[in-house]
Structure formats: C-alpha cells, structure tokens
Amino acid sequence: MKQTVYRSLSVLLVALGIGASGYAQERRVAGKVTSGADNAPLVGVNVAVKGTPRGTTTDASGTYALSVPSADVTLVFSAVGYVRQEQAVGTRTTLDVTLAVEDRQLDEVVVVGYGTVKKSDLTGSLAQVKAKELNAFPVPNVLQALQGRAAGVQVVQNNGAPGANVSVRIRGTNSIQGSNEPLYVVDGFPTAGSNPTVLNNSDIESIEILKDASATAIYGSRGANGVVLITTKRGKAGRTNVDFETSFSQQTLRKKLELMNATEWATFYNEQAVNDKIAPYFTQDQINGFGAGYDWQDLIFQKAPMQNHALNISGGTEKTQFSVGGSIFKQDGIVIGSGYDRYSLRANVNTDISKKFSFNVGTTLTRINLDRRNSSAGNRGGSMIAAALSAYPIFTPYNDDGSYRILAAAIPWGSNVLVNPINFINEQTDQVRSNRGLANAALTFRPIPEIAIRISGGVENGDTRNDAYTTRNFVNSQGTASVSTDQQMSVLNENTVTFTKTLAQDHNISAVAGFTYQEFLNTSVSGSGVGFISDQSETHDLGAAITPGIPQSGYSKAVLESYLGRVNYSYKGKYLLTASFRADGSSRYSAGNKWGYFPSGALAWRVSEEGFMKKIPFISDLKVRVGYGETGSQAINPYATLNQLNSGKTVFGDAQYTTYAPGTRLPGNLKWETTAQTDVGLDASVWNNRVRVTADYYVKTTRDLLNTVQLPSSLGFTSTIQNIGSIQNKGFEFSVDANVLTGAFRWDVGGNIAFNRNRVLKLYNGQDVLGSAINITVTNDFINILREGQPVGAFYGFVEKGYNEQGKIVYEDLNADGAINIRDKTFIGDPNPDFIYGFNSTMSFKNFELTAFVQGSQGNDVFNLSSVGQTLDYGFGLNMPREVYLNHWTPTNTTAKYPVISRTTQTQISNRFVEDGSYLRLRTIQLGYNVPVKNLGIDWLRSAMVYVSGQNLLTLTRYSWWDPEINSYGGANSINQGIDHYSYPTAKTVTVGLRAGF
Amino acid sequence: MRNLFTFLTMNTFFNRRLRLPLLALSLALFGGCSDKALVEAPKSLAVETYYNTAAEIEAAVNAIYSPLRADNCLGGLYPAQHEAYTDYGYGRGSYAILSNFQGLDNTNITRVGQMWDLFYLAIRNANLVIRNAPNATSASTADKAKYVAEAKFLRALTYFYLIRNWGGVILRTEANMTEQNLKRTAADDVYALIVSDLKEAETALPDAPALVGRPSKWSAKAVLADVYFYRNQYAEARDKADEVMKSNKFSLVPVTVADDFAKLFGADVVTTPEEIFYLKYTRVNGQGFNLVMFAHNPAARLHGAGGFFAHYTDALTNNVYKNWDTNDLRKTYGWYKWNIGLGANSLLNKKFTDPAAPTGSAAANDYPLYRYADLLLLYAEAASRAGSGPTIAAMEALNQVHRRAYGKPANAPSAVDFKLADYNATTFVELVIRERGYETQYEGKRWPDLKRSGKFRELIKAGVGKDVADKHLLWPIPISELNFNTALDPTKDQNPGY
Questions:
Q1: Considering only CA atoms, which of A102, A100, A105 is closest in space to residue A35?
Q2: CB pair distance less than 8 Å for B213 and A651
C-alpha cells in the first residue's frame, strides 16, 4: 500500500512536472500479459518504465494500464518464473506481451518429508515424476505409471487382471516377514495400505520418491523400503482453470499360445496309450474325422474396452485457492467377466484466514467396483486359464442340446478336475465393492515469519465388501455364496513446528520438530452358505442356505507414536548439511522393545558454486552428496508377540462344538528391523542445464531381520519368529535428462538405469528358509529359497541330465549317493533382475508431439510353473502346446525337448522350467496434436490436444509363454517371487484421447 | 489429546522467548506417559489366562480332535495312503506308485510329512490339557480327572498311529513339551506310555460318553486290546476284548440285503450300537470326511462334489476280488463297476457315499476307527493264538461277523457258519485274517493288520502279484523334523531306505 501511494504521488509529481514543461507528450499505454506456456493471462506481473520508479502490475485478467512520459520509453515486464522482457513502446498505445516460462529447473521446489526444499539444496537421493508423465496413458493404478520412470524403482504388475496388485521395490528387497512395499504419503498423510488406489492419475501434481536413508529417516519406522510422496493438484491465484480429459482404449491379448489341434491331440494320446500298453483311445477313422477342432482360448479371451474421463477445476484469489477434480475410469478385462471401475471426487481448499493463520483441507472420495474371475493358478484344468489351455479340442463348449458340456466326464480317462471354462464365465461371480475416503485438514500459524506451527488431523477410511457366488448350474455345485467385509480406519494427528531463518546472509537454517500419533483399526465380518434352492438371491440371503457356514469376525488395532526433528543448514548455498532424528513407538512390539530410534545425516557440496568452478561455464551445476541413515520396518502384524488362542470347530454326534488351542507359531520377544543405508551421489548439469545427470551408489544393510525359525514339527509349534538375520542390497543408479534439440523442433530425452545386487547375509543358525510348497498334483514342492550368501527368492531345484533308455527324465545326482532327493537340489535361477531401465523421448514440432517410452528389465528369471503341468502331465487327456507333439522323445528321437509320452512320466521342480524373463517393452508411444486454438479464434478454449497412442505394442523377450512380467505369488513379503502360474496375461492397448483446457 | 491442548495454549503466548523452552518441556512430558497407548489389547483369549473353568478345558480337549479329523490326517490322507497298500485293490494317479510296494516318491513323502505334523499338533494340544487342567482354578476335581483322561486317551491313540507307521518316534509328554530337541525313543518305551495312558483312561472315562464321538471306558479298552494285539500279546488282547464283549453295550447292526450296510456307513447315520470309537463328521464345509472324495468318479454322482477316484480294483486281475464269494453282501455293497480308462473290469469302492455333500470336505459319513465287528474279529484271532487253536468262543465271534455279512441274524446259528472242526490253529488264523480283510475294506486298517500278522509278503504277492520292499514298511521321518531337531541325525535316525 505504501508503495502504491508513493507511486501515485510520483506519477502525479512527474505528471505535474511534465505538465509544467509540456504534458501533451504524456500518454497512456495499456495491454495484456499472457503466459507463454498455456496462453493464460498472468496476474501480478510487474510492468515498469525502465529507468524510472514508475510502474504497475497486471490485474486478475492480466491487463495493465500505465502512463508513459514520452515515446522513447521501454517497458520492462517481469514476474517470478518467467523470463524478463523489455519492449520499446514506440508509438503504440496497446502493448500485449507474452512472457516465456523460465527454465529454472534448479530453483524448482521438491516435496520432502515434512516440508519442501529447493532442488539445488537437496542432500538426499530423490526422484521426481511430474503430472505430464504420470498422465501419459490411462492406467488403473497410478503406480503403473511410475514403471521405468525413476532409477532404482522397480514396479511389477503381479498379473494382468484389471485392478490387480502392483508390487513396488525401491532399491531391492529388505525384509522376509515384513512388507517390502514403500510408504505412500498422500498430501502429507502416511497411508496404511500398500497401494494408493484411492487416487486417479489426473489428480496428481507430482510424485517424489525418497530413496536414501537421509531422506526417508524422517519417516523412521516406515521408511526402510523408501517413501513415495504424492502431492495432489492445488489451485493457484488467478483465473479459474477448467481442464477436461477423456480417452477411449481397446485392449487385446498380445498372442495366443499355439496348442495342438484336434487331430494332433488324438494322435498324441493314442501314442500315450500305446506307450502305456493300453488299447489306443481312437481309431484312425475317428482321428481323420476330427479336423482342426476347437481352440478353447477363443472362449475366454475378448477384445476389451477401457475409458477414462476426468474434470479438474482450479483457481483462486490471493487469499483462497481451490482445486476440485472428478474422474471416472472403467476397464473391462481381456479375460471375459473381469473388470475394474473407479469413480472419484477430490476437493482441496487452501485459505489464509489472516496474516498469521492459514487453513488447508483436502478430501478424496473413491468408489471401486472390481469383478474378478477364478482365472489363475490351478492344475489339470481346475481354473479358467488352465481349463482353456487343457480342454480337449475335439469338443465344443456346448452339447447338441445347448447345455454345457461336462468335460470331467466327457472322456473316462481324462482329468477329473477339468471344468468347462463356460462355467467360470457364466456361472460364477466374484465382486469387490470398495468405498475409500481420505480427508486431511491442517491449521498453520505463523506468529513470526520464521516460525510456522502446523497442526493437522486426517482420516483414511476404507470399507470393502466381497461377494462371491457360484450358481447351481456350475458343474457339481448346489449353489455357494460367501460374503466378506472389511473395515479399515486410520486416524492421524501431526503437530510440527518449522523454523526458517537466514543469518548474516550466508547461513540458511531450516528446522522442523514435531510429534505425531497414528492409530490403525481393522475389523472384518464374513459369512457363507452352501445349497440354495434358487440362484435368484445370489449372496443376498445367506440365511436361506441349506448348509449355512459359520460366520467369522476379526479385530485388530495398532498405534504408532513418534517424535521427529530435522535440521537443514546451508552456507552460501555451497555447503549443505541435513541431520534428522525420529523416535517411533509401536504397539506391535514386545514390552521393552516398543521404541526404535532412527537417526540420519547427509552432507552435500555444490561444487559449481565454488569460485574455481565458475571458470568452467560448460558445467552449470555440480553437486556431490553423501548420506547415512537408519530406518525401520514394523514388519509384524498386531498381536504377533502375544500367545493367543484360536477358535475352531469339531463335530460330536451331528453338531459342531467349539475348540480353543494356540496356533502353530510360537510367539517371541520381537523388536524393530533396522535398515542402515549409505548413499553417495552426484548431480550435475552441463551446457546451461541442457543435460542433467544424477548418479548414486548405495549400500543398504538390514539387521535384526525378522526371520521365521523353523522348529521341529513334533513340537506342535512348527515355527517361531526371531530377530536374527540380515540382508544387504548394493547398487548403482544413473539417470540422465537432456534437451537434445531446442528451437522449432524440440527433442527431449530421459533415461535411467539401475543395478541392484541383493544378498542374504545371515539367517538363523544358517538354516534355509523355504518358499511355500505349491501343489499342482504332478509336483508338490517348493521353488524359492533363502540361503546365506544368495539373493532373496532364488530358485532351487534339480538339474536335468537328459533321458534314460525309456525316455524318462534323469536328474543329476549331485552328491553321488545314488539317490535323487533334496540333497541333489541346487540353485537354478534368480528372479531378481541384473538391472532395470527406462528411456523416454519426446519430440515436438509445430503443434505435433511424438512421445515414446521404453521400459525393460534384464537378467530376471521366470519359473514357468504353468508349463510343468501343461507340458509334462500326460495320461489325463490334457491339451498341450503344439511343440510337445512335434518334439518329444521316441526311440528314434532321443534328444527331443520333451520326454516319452506316458502316464508314468514323472517330473520334479528343475531347471527345465526356468526361463529368461528379460524384456524390453515399448510401454507407450503417443502422437499428439495441439489444436492451435488462438489462431483459430476459439476463445472459449484455452488449449486442446488430441492424441492417439498405443501401450505394450511391442515386447522383446525370450519368454515362451504370454508375459515375462508376472509374479503370480508375489506380494508385499513373499519369498515366492518370479513364478508364472497361469497368470492373467497383460494386454496391448490402443488409445485415442482428448485433453482440453477452458 | 493432551499434546494438542498444550500446543494450543502455547499459541496464546506471543512471547517468542517462552516458546522454545515450552516446546521442549511438552515434548519431555510426553516421553514419559505415552507408553500406555502402546499396550496391545486384542479381543481374543490368551494362553496365560485360560484353562480355568470346565468349559474352557472342554474346548481345549475339543481342540485335540481337530488335527486328527483333518483332511490331511485321519480324515483323508491317512486312509487314502493305506488303501493303496492292500491286497484287494490298487492306487491310481499319484497313488499308483504306492501299489508297487517299493517305498514312497516325493509327492507321497510330502503327504506323509503333513500327517506327521498334524499328529504332533494333536499331541501338543493333549499335553496342554494334561499339564494345565490340574491347575484350573474353578473346575471340580471330577471334571479335571475326566478331561485329563480323555486327553490321555487321545494322546495314546495318536502315538499308536505314529508308532505303527514310523517306528520309534519322539516322545513328547506334558513334562518335556517345550523342549525343542529330543531324540527318538525306543518303540518299547513309546508303547509303555501308550499302555499307561490307556489304563488311566479305562478307569477314569465314563461308562457312556457325554457326547457321541467322545470316548468311553469301553473305547479305551478296545484300543488297549488293539495295542496288545499289535504287539502280539495275544492273551492280554483276548482278555481285554472279552471285557468289552461281556459289557453287552455293543452289538452288530443287522443287515438283510446289501444296501442295509448303509445303516452302518451311510452319511445320514448319527450313531449305531456298533460304534466303539468313531471320528464324527457332518455336512458342513470343512467338517466332512474327506476320504469319501478319494473313492468316487465325478460322473457316478456318489459324492455331491465330484471325486478323485484314487483307488480301484479289477474283477479280472485282482485275486482277492476274484476269489471272493459273490453271496457275501459286502462284495455287492462295497464295489461298483466304472470305466476309468484302465480296462473294462475296473471297480470303485462305495462303502462311503454322500450324494448330498456340497463340497469335497463336507461328506457326512463318520470314520469308524473302532467298531464292534473289529473287536469280535480281534477276539477270535487273539483267543486262537493265545490258546492252542480256535476255541468255541473264538469261532462264535468270527461267525457273528460272518453271518451278518451274509444277511443273516448275527446271534443265531446259520447255514453259512464256519465249523470249528474244519480249522486248526494255522488255518483258523488265515481265515480270520481273510475275513478281516473283507470286513474292513476302505477303512485304512488292512496294511497295519498285514504287518502285524507278519503275512504281508505272501498276501500281497497272492492278491496283486507284487513284492514288498523293506523300505515300504515304515514312512520316512519328514524334513520338517530332521532339519530342525538337532538331537536327530539325518542319516542315522531316518527310517531305512530314505
């Protein structure tokens, strides 16, 4: 206010002065200032008359008006974030200016835990992915958009089903018992789950991934696996912007497997009958009559549509800003009957109540509808995908009278668990309906500019209901219904004080301290029933079941209390120091071990700010940093340290009676798992920031690893958990971003590559920890193992040696004791990749933009469990890949790929099934056209872009089945990594879409 | 919340100098009292406060039955495994290799390991009752004794199953139940515990069980008779069986036509006078008799949820079936012709059927571990062996079972009776063993009987033409024990051949 008065006075004085000397030369200049980025009017731009104190600022519509003394005047236009412009007024009375966005990448601010920091002041290892990349193509889960975008962040889709879980590993696997998923923080709220499915991609402004301990230690006990900070869009003062986007996609199966046709199949099984000295099943006439038969894969796969629509409205004034977004996402799956729908509404308001108080509130409400099919796992045709591959090609799904063919009875010597896939499609439903809400409110008080006190509270709520129904038409079914519901609530209160001050111009201090409390409550209820008179009621009348099941319910509560503090100090912007400390108390651990302490420290040196470096103009920025920190992992469920009794039922007479006994796990005194990480990194940018490079080397060691200790099973307690164990991850990350060409033809590229080596250092007593035994009848054995000195989840099995004289598989007797047993097993593969990489290229010319993104993984093995039954289980009439028919052992072909076709052929978990799962995938390629709205004179549109793109169009891999990017038994803490067990295949997609701004 | 309050009151002090010390003070205050919020309070029972009332002890005793009745133990895998080791039938699919009598392959070794784990889980649950019930604070002495006796009965029964299939095993009682590493105990010492537990049970258990499926003193006597019988202590076996017979509490269920056997083995039968000790099942998913799935072919619809048809016999190639009198109603009732791709003469067993069963683990048939027919046949052989040949009582006992099998009343002489004069000590024993084979088909009892009698090699050779390897007589100690019990040596302590 003071300034404006002064200005007006001076204008007046000058005017008077000019007036005194000849005011006829004073004239008015007016105009509009717009942004070069999106043609939006710019508010608050300084318009000054060069060399004078005269000036003004643009108003809410971007216009300004100013009196200038004479024609030889230059106006200077300046605003934060934009390149300053000077324009000579000349004789013009109207002067419109467009300001270009300043490429000040280094002064960009990034979100870190409990605060923000300038990118140039970062001392830790952090990767940032912005909205444009996140929203590049439609995905049901925002984490899939992160795949390949950040070095060291491995995102694996466990299978291709809509709504399927995604596993994220930042710098390798740390924990055996505990979750390996990172902590997800949405707008400062640490969420309880391992997947932030509540958000739509278009709601997200940016994602920062904290990788090293000096950045994650502020999250203490939950930071050991890295932290993913998600910031949703905020409003900005100025005009109200409306952004709309819509896209439609079509997904198709990438390839069908080549199976035997009917004639080949019948010939194949006749050979099996002859080998087993049984009369052949088919006569030659019958075989000649079969022809090609039916490909059952056609029955279960379909082309599936996907659509995504989102509307964002944001805007505000100096005092209050808001952002509201709504979205609809609908995806059908390529396996018939599967699908995922998500509807969400998000609102965010930020207001300054007064000069000292400001208030912020954000809410997100999401509804998810998920339809699943029993498509994966199984054996001998017991699941949808297994059945489609195994079903007999001489039959079609329907009998002549239109009823479903019962495949288990169709041939007497066939598989008794083979179910006609039409049953899974039409006669079974499995629906999940989920309501999720996230609400956060914060009050910030700034008594003096240097101090901000922030009190916030938030709630995360999830209600899920799962209804599964099998109708009476399903083979051998009398109608089965089951309903289960889950209620999760997490309440958070955070109180922090932040202090920022610059002392003596050179010393910048910023500190934060606080206390947080978070409570997690889970309850569940379920019921079931078998035997219904009619399918009409589905799961909505369990009481009508002939045999009701016993209802179940559960309860668990956990509490986390923390104290945190961090100090950031920088001297002249050249020498940077960060130190943080967090103390976490968790209710899950035993008394006396409830508190864990997690310190960290980091140093950074901006070499480019030193005098000697300024002489090398080629290097615009160079920073080296080193950090060390300890973070923890909660790793156990609530009540795991208590000796609880489990209830059950037994039968006397014809009625059920309650039983109480402890479980089979002996509880123990447990404490925190701690991960210590050292990180050395370098950030450099050269050629005036045109090429930016980041490199990191890290060593991460987890100690006090919670480890299952097997007990002799005669104890009744088969296992216990103790903190004895240690795992190490060591690796190197490298990422580069470059503006290769700037000018009319712009070309930006970015790439990253990360190497990680994972080793189990110590297990209890050197004992191996075995993965689960997976029963597919033809084998019932474990596949993965943890052993000291080997990576987590390595494959362990027999080694084949060829065939014997009867064509049966022979295994290496590695310890030469004459017997083939567990002592002859060895390491046969490793599901962990040698390195992962991603590469992004964006080219734009005039209004066209071509983007391509390639992502890949190299050196990871896949254990093809599906092929164990599907290629070696003879004698039950199962259909098989054609190569088994073309390439199997006969007395004249003794070096074939497959053994003799006989029902006595046996197989073990061996190196035969380990395949190279390395892949390079063109994840997306997109051609977009920015409609030149201004030139076309459409003033109600700010911007519009139409695009066509394809996802997963090209995959280069040597894996023989559908997709190498699978993890059938993967999950937060699974040892059973890298197994393909009839996994739902990933689709390739073609999308067309429109993005418009109003 | 206290912390919120403190911060809010702080904010009213616009005095910068006071602020930081106050902050430090409040943080310090919190360090002390926040641990209370971290104490867990689950909504469930804990071992430390349990085993005090009669109802609690009873629920703990009930927990001994669950592992025994489970699908992976006596409820399914155990009898399924044994039914592949018979002279009257064969295994199919993953059970086929067992009918060669050359030991187990990996798939079956895994199955056997699962049974071991469940037997020892039952023993642990029994030991928990035996150790904790005497210290109960609000149960009567009579109740305590009753439940301890029931637990000891079940423990003895479980060890009896363990020792017959694995030999001398690890002996866990309430005294050493928390010790991890124990050696294998000699067979004699295991039997000593079994006998002492059963002797305590036969006095302390009630005359009639409180619920059908709980043991009575007669159940304990029947099992004790079987233990003596297995150890070839024929006089003790005969006397113990005689006590049960003289109690007049049990009788054979009368049968006139083949289908009447459903009155003994059918799914809807709750109890019969023939029941001495059965594992009870009901038509609820997870509470059914899983063995029934192993018998049937899905198309036959004799089990509501399908079937694995894991066992079969053959009218042409199996000598026991071929030589079996067609007038024996057990032959008609027990088997049905079904083509399973192994020739035109294959038959599947239908002793247990439940067409109304909704899932694989929901067949309502009970598993007859001990029935009166078993006891009569035991008495017959024991009496003959303990004496110098068949006695009148022994022959009568055999004839009662035989008459019932032909549809005649059990207690009256009939035309089909065996004559005492026709048999001597050797031939009588052979006869009883053959009859016991017919009577106990698909009940998982044939193989232990063949082993006990010492006649397994000749009878298997005669029935199915196979030679029995020594390795096949005992199951391997599972890796889940050998690898983690440091008192065991993986090579020396493993059963031969593994």
A1: A100
A2: yes
The amino acid present at A652, given as its one-letter code, is F
For helices B106-132 and B54-69, angle between their N-to-C axes, nearest 10 degrees: 170
Residue type, B295: A
pLDDT at A199 over 90: no
Element (H, E) at A463: strand A451-470
Cβ distance A651 to B280 less than 8 Å, yes or no, reads: yes
A418-435 pLDDT tens trace: 889 999 999 999 999 999
User: Tens of pLDDT along A537-556?
Assistant: 999 999 999 888 889 999 99
* Ranges B7-11, B282-286, B312-316, B474-478: which has the least confidence: B7-11
Chain A CB within 8 Å of residue B284 CB: yes
d(CA B85, CA B90): 7
Give yes or no for a contact between A530 and A469, defined as CB atoms under 8 angstroms apart.
Answer: no
Closest CA to A453 of A494, A486, A502: A494
Q: Closest chain B residue to A909 measured between Cα atoms?
A: B106
User: Which residues on A lie below 8 Å from B180 (Cβ)?
Assistant: 711-712, 715
Instruction: Kindly provide the ipTM of the predicted complex, given to two decimals.
Output: 0.88
Interchain pair B117, A710: CB under 8 A: no
* A485 neighbors A551 (Cβ within 8 angstroms): no
Q: Which letter does DSSP use for residue B269 in this model?
A: -
| Rounded mean pLDDT, B214-235 | 95
Residue B217 phi/psi, 5-degree rounding, is: -65, -25
Where would I find the beta strands (DSSP E) of B253-322?
A: 275-279, 311-314
Two structure tokens written together for A304: 């599936």
pLDDT at A637: 82
SS (H, E, C) A384-431: HHHHHHHCCCCCCCECCCCCECCHHHHCCCCCCCCCCHHHHHHCEEEE
Give tens-digit pLDDT for A694-710.
999 999 999 988 877 88
How far, in Å, CA of A841 to CA of A737, rounded?
Answer: 10
pLDDT (tens digit per residue) in A218-233:
887 788 888 999 988 8
**Quick one: A500 exposed, middle or buried, by C-beta within 10 A (0-12, 13-18, 19+)?**
middle
What average pLDDT score do residues A959-973 get? 83
CA distance B458 to chain A (A): 27
Please state, in angstroms and rounded to a whole number, the distance separating the CA atoms of residues B246 and B254: 19
**Cβ atoms of residues A560 and A518 within 8 Å:** yes
Show the CA angle centred on residue A477, arms to residues A474 and A480, nearest 5°: 100
Cβ–Cβ gap B46/A654 under 8 Å: no
Order of strands, edge to edge, in the sheet holding A914-916? A914-916, A861-864, A979-980
Interface test with B, best of A634, A651, A710 (most B CBs within 10 A): A651
Q: Is A486 helix (H, G, I), strand (E, B) or coil?
A: strand
Which A residues 815-834 touch B at CB under 8 Å?
Answer: 821-822
Residue B30 has pLDDT above 50, yes or no: no
Q: And the tokens for B267?
A: 């799914």
Residue in A with minimal Cα distance to B478? A713
Where does residue A690 rank: exposed (0-12), middle (13-18), buried (19+ CB within 10 A)? middle
**pLDDT digit string, tens, across residues A85-102:** 788 888 888 888 888 765
Q: Read off the pLDDT of each residue in A16-41 and give the average, rounded to a whole number.
A: 67
Measured in degrees and rounded to the nearest 5, phi and psi for residue B65 equal: -70, -35
User: 0.80 cut: is pTM over it?
Assistant: no
- The 3-state DSSP class for residue A770 equals strand
CA distance A958 to A964: 9
DSSP B469: P
Instruction: Please state, in angstroms and as integers, the Cα–Cα distance from residue A261 to each residue in A266, A279, A389, A874, following that order.
Output: 9, 22, 11, 16
In this prediction, residue A41 has a pLDDT band, given cuts at 50, 70 and 90, of confident
- Amino acid identity, residue A814? L
